[in-house]
Amino acid sequence: MTLLTEVLSRPLDGGYAEAAQRKAAGQTPVRPARWVLVVAAALVLGLAATWGVRALRSPGEAEQRAHQALERSAAEAQERVTALRERTNELAGQVEALENQALARSDPSAATRARELAMAVGAIAVAGPGLEITLQEDAEAVAAGAAEARIRAGDLRILVGALWQSGAEAVAVGGVRLASTTAIRDVGDQVQVGFESLGTPYVIEAIGPSDDMELGLVDGSAADRMSLLKGYLGATVAIRRLDRLELPASAEVAGLDYITVGEGSEPR
User: Fold this and answer.
1) How far is 199 from 40, CA to CA, in rounded Å?
2) Chain-wide mean pLDDT for the chain?
3) pLDDT for residue 225 is more than 90
4) Mean pLDDT, residues 193-211 taken together
5) From the CB of residue 137, how many other CB atoms can be counted at a distance below 10 Å?
6) Interior CA angle at 251 toward 199 and 116, to 5°?
7) CA nearest to 229, candidates 131, 134, 135
8) Is 119 exposed, middle or buried (0-12, 13-18, 19+ CB in 10 A)?
9) Model pTM greater than 0.85?
């Protein structure tokens, strides 16, 4: 009851009455020093938090220089790999030509057969008429972060399979010649053919009967896949007939080997 009586009789805090008396007497209210300290501390904390957020969100000069150095190193390494691959293909072609010359002098029919086998397995470069299929992702959808808009390795495998089934004699994806052991797989957001990471647009080249291969692409699972790419993913698919395509030898095929049965032994 004492508390209720106190509240009813003196509803305002005593500080209000003191402030009213000082105001009536013309005195300036005195702010406690602790309020000044609180305001100063709040300003310091706010500035420190702002500086910390900016430091975390923007990388320092050292990190930027290190990142740029890594990018330059990766680009230089890729250029060296490309140059070495071209040199390897050149030397492989010279070795293959010398082997064919030597074999042709000793056994012409065997040389012809060896060349046919080398072409079939991708051991030598080939040229001839065929198809070029170019697939381009929807750049705006990919830039917006739509992962489903990306062309995947499975899409390329279906198209390559349709080409082989339609009579393709040699196929390359992104300039990489396919052999029987070449894998087309997803590595993160990139498609990797063999050990090469490809970028868009994806180009598939196939040497063989153009009519049959084009018919194989517009029928069956390949046609369904291309319709899905163009309709749902917004990708661009272009098919061109070319009178001449040049495909390199496969890096995964070292060459053709053979064995002979020694005298006195029986084949198993």
Assistant:
1) 55
2) 78
3) no
4) 90
5) 20
6) 120
7) 135
8) middle
9) no
Nearest 10 degrees: CA dihedral of 152, 72, 140, 133?
A: -40
CA neighbours closer than 13 Å in the CB half-sphere of residue 217: 25
Q: Give tens-digit pLDDT for 48-94.
A: 777 777 766 656 667 777 777 887 887 788 788 778 877 877 777 77
The amino acid at residue 67 is H
Exposure string over 41-57, b if 16+ CB within 10 A, otherwise e:
eeeeeeeeeeeeeeeee
Residue 248 and residue 125 in contact, taking contact as beta carbons nearer than 8 Å = yes
φ, ψ at 97 (rounded to 5°): -65, -40
Q: Residues of the chain with pLDDT > 70: what percent?
A: 75
Helices (H), 122-152: 139-143
Residue 111's φ and ψ, nearest 5 degrees, are -65, -40
Let me know: does 169 contact 119? Beta carbons within 8 Å: yes
Encoded tokens for 134: 């170019």
Of 245, 224, 222, the closest CA to residue 131 belongs to 245
d(CA 153, CA 164): 16
Amino acid, single-letter form, for residue 145: G
Which residues have C-beta within 8 Å of that of residue 239, sequence separation ≥ 6? 131, 132, 133, 214, 217
| Confidence at 160, pLDDT banded by 50, 70, 90 | very high
The counts of H helices and E strands in the chain are: 9, 8
Q: What is the pLDDT of residue 267?
A: 46
